[in-house]
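An example makes the point: we print one protein in full, the chain in one-letter code, the fold tokenised, without further comment:
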Amino acid sequence: MADLQEASVTLPSDPASVTTARRYVCGLLADWGLPPGDDVVDAVRLIVSELATNAVLHTSGLSPTFTVDVRLERSEQLYIGVTDSHPRRPQRQRATAVQQDNGRGMVIVRHLTQESGGRLEVTPTEDGGKTVWIMIPWAVAVT
């Protein structure tokens, strides 16, 4: 496998794009050797769904598109970033948010990322938006 594999897709900020983003990322993971039934695939599927949903629902129409970047470095670390052009950063929710009807997406993302041995960070973009990144260890043995 190459030292760096990367791909990205830009989608309209439309609810139907969440499914497209999720399928796109899961397809890449399969192409890069992660078996479809792996626990990491399930976690990434939910993480991408939550991040894409946030990019669609919480940008107040200020981000007509969002971009999903996927990068695998040296077969060791998987990076997934969702970028939108809205300047507002995700609000840190407490664990009690899980009991609410909404607002628990980032709690779920943080939990799944940490459970997978990874981390989450938010970085600003040049156009005033932000990228929400998750970084998790790559779980496929290189043969």
About this structure: The chain has a mean pLDDT of 87.
